[in-house]
Amino acid sequence: MPTLLRMENISKRYPGVLALDNVSFELRKGEVHCLLGENGAGKSTLMKILSGALKKDKGRIFLEDNEANYKIPSEAQKLGIGIIYQDFKLIPELTAADNIFLGSEILRSSFSFLDKRKMNELAQKVLHELGEEIPADVSINKLSVAQRQMIEIAKATHRNINILAMDEPTASLTTSEIENLFKVIRKLKSQGVGIIYISHRLEEIFEIGDRVTVMRDGKKIDTSGIKDTNIKGLIKQMVGRELADEFPKHTAKIGNAILNLEGINCGKLKDINLKLHKGEILGLAGLVGAGRSEVARIIFGADKTESGKIIFEGKEKIFKSPKDAINSGIALLTEDRNLYGLFMERSIRENVSVSNLSPLMKGIFIDKAEEKKVVGNYFDQLQIKAPSQETKVENLSGGNRQKVVLARWLHTNSKIIIFDEPTAGIDVGVKYEIYNLINKLVEQGIGVIVISSELPELIGISDRIIVMCEGRISGELEKKDFSQEKILDLATQVEEKVL
């Protein structure tokens, strides 16, 4: 197959960090070339240079054997390069159609007004081809994370592209949505489009990929055909070591019930009865829209119950706001950590300490020395990879951002911690670290709820799994009964079959 893209000896340095060290990469016409590596390996930096969002320090880029020297994203787009970033680049207040056509708006003839009708029609067509029925005129801020991901994909694929880079495109998608995406990818392949596919879900690359390149610490480790490698070998190349077990075992002693939800009704949630014990990891399974995140919001005081009781540490509680829940010792690590969990332009130190400033105060001022000491303990304990506490969170990898959110909640002395999609967009090595951290939490007697769309993850780390379907609890499984088939069966039950 002809070569569409050659990136030769690309280097990029940030203050104190060599992000890319003489990396070369090739993409052929009509292939899916998977790009793997832990967070911080340099994958996203390489793609940002390809898209024109970052300037390379050294190296050359060739498009079909012609050297390309574009400097900004719009120039790259004109050359047929499209990219879908891991962090959404959408404007929440605008509609789906407005976002899809952002930068390529359609105007009415001889007038400087947007042709909204035409844009909506074409956007709806693009979404339909992706297997989505999202209304083109709906505001982005009314869409779920999964739906926003599909808008990002539509935004890239509606243009005439030769090269499409996808950075974690399936992180928030259901199985059926992933299947629809793969259909689109195969269609683009048949049209000669070359696709760079970045994913931490290693099983995906064997379904959709042709070749795979592994990066580690800013360097290219190896490129091979998909048929010439396996998951174990790829993991070893990515982390530089073998992981003895993907899901580390925990031996925490499960104690008394710390939380009971009794007959909770709120919006789509119907008659929710749920129990969590001290030292327990409770998995919450279900398809996107089943009501899992809504249960988390009820426990966290973000939504008010219409009826039912919340029993916390043996006493009925009414959480009027998240502040009430936080003061009681309940923490929530949200699904979209960038939007709701972090102050992106602030430092690690500020993001951690802001959750509980009282013990850091000296009179009316923050004791800076004590603040740095406390945050430093979490920095070391969670092995946050950054030059210092003063590093801005926006410059961290996805896994390290998740660690900062966790450090913030540990600083509040939480008794219950809810993880909503804790490892979405996080590499296999850091996943292992997150699982170990969760194990340490339950060993301290903390009750943990994990919401995840990755069934192997829930099965691997949970003590008990509750399955939801259409706003109801459709079943509960003990560890001895765990299987993907049983979970999926319960997750797809219609209301008449709900237990």
Which secondary structure elements does this structure contain, and how are they paired or packed?
Elements (H helix, E strand, L loop, with lengths): L2 E12 L2 E12 L3 E5 L6 H9 L6 E6 L2 E2 L5 H6 L2 E4 L11 H5 L15 H14 L15 H13 L5 E5 L7 H16 L3 E5 L3 H7 L2 E6 L2 E7 L5 H9 L17 E10 L2 E9 L3 E5 L6 H8 L7 E6 L2 E3 L4 H7 L1 E4 L3 H5 L6 H6 L7 E2 L2 E2 L1 H14 L16 H13 L5 E5 L7 H16 L3 E5 L3 H7 L2 E6 L2 E7 L5 H8 L8
Parallel strand pairs: 3-8, 3-9, 6-7, 7-8, 13-20, 13-21, 16-19, 19-20
Antiparallel strand pairs: 1-2, 1-4, 4-5, 9-10, 11-12, 11-14, 14-15, 17-18, 21-22
Oligomer: single chain
Poorly predicted runs are 494-499
Structural class: alpha/beta
**Average pLDDT across residues?**
87
The number of helical elements comes to 17
Largest sheet: 6 strands, mixed
Proportion of beta-strand residues: 25-35%
| Share of helical residues | 25-40%
- Do you know the CATH topology of the largest domain? Rossmann fold
Under CATH at level 1, the class of the largest domain stands as: Alpha Beta
Number of domains: 2
CATH superfamily of the largest domain: P-loop containing nucleotide triphosphate hydrolases
Rg over CA atoms: 24 Å
Q: Mind telling me which CATH architecture of the largest domain this is?
A: 3-Layer(aba) Sandwich
- N- to C-terminal separation? 54 Å
In total, the number of strands is: 22
